[in-house]
Batch of 3 targets.
Target 1
Amino acid sequence: MPTETFEFQVEARQLLQMMIHSIYSNKDVFLRELISNASDALDKLRLEALRDDTLDVDVSDLHIDIETDAEARTLTVRDNGIGMSHDEVVQLIGTIANSGTAKFLQELKQAKDEATAEGLIGQFGVGFYAAFMVADKVTLVTRRAGQSEGTRWSSTGEGTYTVEPVEDAPQGTAVTLHLKPVDQEDQLFDYTSRWKIREIVKRYSDFITWPVRMAAEAPAEQKEKEEGDGEEAKAAPEPETLNSMKALWARSRDEVSDEEYHELYKHISHDWTDPLETLRMQAEGTFEYQALLFLPSRAPQDLFARDHKRGVQLYVKRVFIMDHCEALLPEYLRFVKGVVDAQDLSLNVSREILQQDRQIQLMHRRLVKKVLSTVKEMMTQRPENYATFWREFGRVVKEGLLSDHENRDAILRIASFATTHDQEKPTTLQQYVERMKEGQEHIYFMTGESRTAIENSPHMEAFRDKGYEVLLLTDPVDEVWVETVPEFEGKELRSIAKGEADLDEEETEEAKAEREKRQEDFAGLLSWMTERLGEQVKEVRLSSRLTVSPACIVSDTDDVTPALRNMYRAMGQELPEAKRILELNPGHPLVEGLRKAQAERPDDADLAGTAELLHGMALLAEGGELSDPARFTKLMAERLERAL
């Protein structure tokens, strides 16, 4: 057959130029694309040889060769795979030229911007054309396994391309790039440089199934002999294999040592310590992927930094695609490191941008469940590992209670909290429920800056006396998630610093009568103080949570706590102020004395100052801030002076 010349269609030519100049953010990926295509060709040949007994091919040494010629400025990627026939070259390599179907042209014309056009390119699989980013001319020579005649395809990537027969073409495909001049500013590197080739293969194609080889560099003296006076040259050195081919996630657990897993973890995480846990996943069926995830043994210093890079490495058929794929794991699992290798994904032509499709969502869902189930397994089978994990990452995992409603219950079950039950050992909600006192209906908790501050809070007094266990929540995120998680196993989560503290579930008639009598005795004082402190508090009432302190401040059941309001303020969001409730301990001498004094001297101005002091002391006892510290100090000084 004579040489055939084809002309690119106008639309396709524009599309090709756009891809060459703007789609790929890193020109190095041209080699990734060519090696990936070669690897696919080798896979297809092995499969074809198994299916067709009559196919006379040698599959004993399937490999990919990279050849460079610095003087001629050429780079060749060669494989001994399935190869292509003349018709396949026109159909496959001429994808752009032959993609001028009515549907494609219509969609292209409807694409109003470059980003939309990029998405269209991805539907037509033209990664081969990435070669034109670095080459002025590309020549492809190929011969299909089982056929005698080969085909040469050649183009400068501009107006035309040619296709012609070749008599002596070896089986497989060889793509030769006539490289553009080196231009560092345009990120056009010297792609005949051996170290550059090694770098690209190591980064993008290290785990390709087949060996990627490059001829070993002959020593200077060897070259001299070969070029000298006919003296017999030594045998050529063995070619250098550039890739490890060690995709640990694709090998069975029995074939891989813990040391190899740890080495991979250190390589991808840049952490010098061994991982705490190694997680393996393999999904088969309509959508296949493999995952190898690691839970670190310590939190990185930038875990809470805004610019913290998260996400696992993404591969497609062992070809590296993305370093930090955020789409596969939620932000609250940003500490998880590892590799996910899918058999097929909806990527655009540059393989750099994931399309949001059900495959990504499916992997995301399964990976999250795998991580959470592994942590749950650690709780029961490796408690020391779990303790380390929760100490390092518990604060982050609890963020999922706010964002991941689907897995909220699973997160609650792997969470553990400090508690009044044990000074050292944290507890899970399940353990708390199992220890609940008879008649106890709620899971009690209190938030605060530290364990000491919470334990010394007046709010704890009655709960301590009655032996009720209280969760001590001191992480900033605790202030937020407790507002959104209503219950656990049917038990309501209730703050001991909000609403009424109803601890007398089975009140006797005698106790009820005594309470009503006490309420009647203090009615005058409560009404008077509510009026006097009306600018600071919503209500003054008697407390059932105090046994030692004279007073405490509580929030109404549905109100935002001061700590949470401060968090929103720090983020630039102002919440409306809500007055709180002052509770008095009717059994305290100070409160009883104030009641009697107010009944006897209702017009005594000093009593109003005492009421202010009582409110201020309650604020300070919970770690709050006084609205007027100077006035509080003045009133306190006056009272102390009189006492001397």
Target 2
Amino acid sequence: MPLTPHRHASDGAAPHDRTVRAPARHRASRADTGHAHRRRTATALLAPAVSVCLLAASPPAVPLGIGDRLFPHLGNPGYDVLAYDLALTYPGRNDRPLRAVTTIDARITADLDRINLDFAHGTVASVEVDGAPAVFAAAGEDLVITPEDVPDRGERTRVTVRHTSDPVAGDREGGWVRTADGLAMANQADAAHLVFPCNDHPSDKAVFTFRITAPDGHTAVANGLPAGADRTRRATTWTYRTPHPMATELAQVSIGRSTVLHRTGPHGLPLRDVVPTRDRARLEPWLARTPGQITWMEGKAGRYPFATYGLLMADASTGFALETQTLSLFERDLFTDPALPAWYVESIMVHELAHQWFGNSVGPRTWSDLWLNEGHATWYEALYAQERGGRPLEARMKAAYEASDGWRASGGPPAAPKPPEPGRKIGIFRPNVYGGAALVLYALRQEIGRTAFDRLQRDWVARHRDGTATTSDFVRLASQVAGRDLTGFLYPWLYGTRTPPMPGHPKWRSTARTTTADPRPGTHDHRTAALPDTGAHRPRGSRE
């Protein structure tokens, strides 16, 4: 949907014709900036004319990007987002736009003429920069903002966008998921900008505050910890805050006729699950397994990295599960289908749980580093299936090895995946970054031994906690832990077009035969038992 001018009488937004029609102003003072006000040269009487002239004289707005190899036009240069404050008002139906106000606190890192945000599926009513109206325009999937006075490098700035957030996606992938009773989010990969204006790239983490207003009868839950609920006669506003920084792709908001269930995990960790109220009783046995799964993961990777965790069981047909930070998204039907064995369902739960360490706490610096997320989550999924479900890890790795050359041919090497087809961002989620990447970790364990491998896993999440990391960072740390340079060993596994020999298994062979199976956790056909031994779960509807 285009970013068209629009007025909301209820939120006080002024009509906007993309030309600032306001008196000259001073930057709003904020205690956290510590910067002096810059002098203004425009006067109140000349401000409208000056704004018109500047708009006419300036070059046209253009979309920018940070040059990610897979998604070069997403993300934006020149600033670092420190915090998002996202206020959403749900109208009571999931086929109508939500009213929204997104406030972004950022630090300017380069000399800018404009500020570009990623936003591509809503109507913008107004934009303010440090409290003053700013000119804005749509360009590609960017919202391009031209303040009267762009902040200087090193300064902090606050951008406030009043807009709608449209849950009817049309042919767009990702963003809002319409459930039977409300909404949830699935923003991977880089689809958060279909929901709210942002710097939509995993390299720019920030803390989030969510303020969600919904009519009586609905419950709203978001990432992080609850920070209050303000009730009026007909609605409630729930507030949640994330104590730890988060990538935009991992944002989660659930609005529906839901019940929130609370329990305690290891070390007193508060757990909260969100389920359709009518399904509470039959889903409870699955939810009760989470504390034990966290204990199991802590034994492998160290202390759980966040302040809370839980499952969001959505009454929706998505075809996948998703590791949204501290509140993993699942289809309800994954837990109610009698054809699926318990060990398999639990292994999918562990896959998303493992992501809280690998992919969330330690995020990818670029989308080419995706194998670090999915390879590790698939690895722990397979280990759990072996230890708790009796499914041999070696047999699964052998099957993955046999398919590996085909995966590399169709999707690229694990650390250099092929770009997706135009308009299909989720096309990067191929077998090469799931089973193929887990196979890399198996080869590494075979090469350096279990003791060094286990230490590497713990050191990795401890060293990069709450940050981002690259494939080169992983190779460097693996070499340090092993006490020798592993570049020559790991690079063929990570970047080669053919699968290297497997240490300890000289008779294993791979072929160039491709597979169409979808390896992502939770992508399954409920008419069959899934096929986790091959590293591939049969899709209900493949995203590729």
Target 3
Amino acid sequence: MTQKVVEKLKLMVVDDEPDNLDLLYRTFWRDFKVYKANNAHHALAILDQVGEMAVIISDQRMPDMNGTELFSRTVENFPDTIRILLTGFTDVEDLVDAINSGQVFKYITKPWKPEQLKALVEQGRDTYNLVKKRTKELRNALQRESLFNAVTTAIRESLDYDSILQKIVVTIGQTFAVTSCLLRLVEGDRLTPTQFSYHDPKSPAITSLLVPIPLIEEVFHTQKYQLAQDTHNQNPYHYLVVPFSYQQHLLAVMTLYQWGSEQPWQEEDIQLITDVAEQAALALSQAKLYQSLQEKQQQIRVELQVARQIQNNLLRQTLPEFDGVKVQACCYPAREVGGDFFEVFVHPQGDLWLAVGDVSGKGVPAALFMASAISLLRRELSQQSPAEPNMVMQNLNYALADDLMSNNYFITLVIASYNRATKELVYANAGHIYPLLWSHSATLVTQPHYLKVRSVPLGILPKWQSQPGRLILAPGDTLLLASDGITEAKVSLNSESSIKTDSSGQPINSSMLNQEGLWQLIQEQPQPFSLEHLLTCIQTDNHLQEDDQTILSLEVL
């Protein structure tokens, strides 16, 4: 086994007396690579040629330039060097100034004791090694932080997953001055065709990069970096294969190529690259998850748009014509799909059926119950002789109650039938807000007539029961059915005299419309009465629609 040779530290001795130079050389040549200089100028020339010394031992009294002056001229270029001053006289001021300015580590008087000087040099060597170690650690930490910041910035500035990968490859390639860098994604246990690359513009173009398959297979197996050397067209090159792993899951493999270098990466560089790869793998995992979520959200949006169209098609796109009456209806879900619905159905026997319903909750679950309810309702109304509204309601509850109760849902619903011959309106109410009835022929209408016959919503009890409500409509009468998305809409208070305050004295700028506010808006509507115009007035103040909004009117002509 070959033992690694540790290179000796460099030490320089400076003295104008040859005997002292020889003595110092013999003292330290076994432990240091010793350089001799017989004056300060000679010492500076050696430093220019050889570079930094670990330790410089210099005599103080020398011709032209003394020891402290020599040391002062080496501080800027070699701040870490340990300087030991040999002095044969006591000049306290010079020594104190030299030590305080950092030029001199220690001083020793002539004649010195060899053991004392060797102990002092060993102390200086240890100090030099510690300083160098700390400096290297600090430099590596700063480099790591700088690179991490560069990668983080590149990731944050990227707009999508592919852009993030390309920015990472370019950042690593430029930071470590590689010839080329290639990153390939991993799916399962294989490389995908998707790849991202960087090439140093100052290097000659490489027509094809050799993919080190054996090393990549080893990376797949161990999830550890692999370093190797090879030749291409008789030119040697090095490559480093680094895994991008997160939670033992291999996301990508990056190969760094370097041409024309004997040793392109130091151990600390490789460690830094692997550290960056770990950080990048975390970012890639998060970016991939974010991209997957975006794709799923887009898919959900598309599916909800289709569901909205399907649900919209379930409602009457054109209302049937019925002599002697005018029917209007509008339905606006708060989300893509909702639980509100309406129905306008003309039976072959001549009766006109109206309904407005509201499934509790919002979104897809409510929309599914809405579709079931409207389908069952149409089946009931299509019978040769439909039952009265309260019996239709009872049949709907029988069909829907189990599913509604098991899923903690319920449906509020108003069903009404209007006989054109007798002008009779028969209705049933399952927990829905009261229908409003008013007449334009009346000379003074201060309050509408609320149809208050009502029972519990569908899906509350296994058996639904209620008596129907009955009344005769006259020409000029208008019946209005609305969902609670209308009456619970937030609207601004326009009249300054009606501005209210809460318990702390702060003004309340908006309030729930309620049925009283709806009636006030209806009275302010121009003739002929238009549901679209009424909804426009409500939605003007109701900037955020919190619930589905459905409204239906029957006006007797």
